[in-house]
Amino acid sequence: MSHIIPTIGPAISDSQHLTKLYQDGVRILRFNFSHYSPEKAKPILDIVYETEKLVGWKFDLMMDIEGPSIRTGELNQPRLYTKWEKFKLVVDTKNVSENAIFCDYPGILDDVNIGTIVKIESWLFDTIVREKWSNYLLLEALNEFTMISRRHINIPGIHINQPTVTEKDFQDILYAIQEWFRYIAISFCRSAEDIKTVRSFIQSHTTNQIKLIAKIENQEGIDNLDEIVESSDMVMVARGDLGTELPLEVIPEIQMKIVKTCKLKNTPVIVATQMMSSMVDHPAPTRAEVSDIFLAVLEGADYLMLSEETTIWEYPIQTVEMMKRTIESAEKFDK
Length: 335
Fold this sequence. Notes:
With 335 residues, this protein is of the alpha/beta class. 36% of the residues lie in helices and 21% in strands. Among the domains are: 1-64 and 274-335, TIM Barrel (Alpha-Beta Barrel); 79-154, PK beta-barrel domain-like (M1 Pyruvate Kinase, Domain 3).
């Protein structure tokens, strides 16, 4: 049977919503530490613990560590970029002025070349490098986009010279150990060595058996899929960054390949990202989303994950219940 993993956020971080989630069959809660720190997570964890005491059961907690992500900086207000507009991408906050964008990864100046495509916020804003200088890149917008703070930056096909597990990640893992998290998801997992690094770190700090989830998010992860599946306790088809790093039309094929490999090796597998994203601000999903869930169940997904649908938006419980009904429909069909 397939199970649902919601991502926790303000929309479901109260006892009433948590109780309803448990009644709907949810047993794992995901904390996305791309947006959390221990200080920000603690108040929500306290509510989870209080709810568990009241009702007499426990959730398993998943920490999704950030990994080597690249983001833009903070903005006081949204900023519109028009098609063909040229602007600077800078790596020093002192150089941020006018329409310049700050990037928190200085190595981008070395990793890219003139003509490299730089994608911001998962295909929503495509840019191309027109000039390369010692302290900035000159980008040209290939479409119109309204920028807000802390947006993802992806550079498809380019190896990023950052470790898979960052210093922030190690500090967050220590917090996961302290708070008895059951799962840790390793973002942008590239090889079995990444899993061994995290497992060794955990074993040096606790005897708790924390299960490791390898998130497949780039070509390196796909190239080393067999060794990753064999070394991890669970695998996630992380379609968000996969769909930025690779052509969208190959993502269904890659999903099927990952799920099939996991089934052959008896490794549980999660399918994630945009499963019901229309329910972020609508009370019902699209027909395509329902079909996506149905087919993921038939492929053999053990878990289906919700992200923004359950964090800060209006219909978190309706989303979980709709997903649950779709899973049940697929499983009846498959019998």
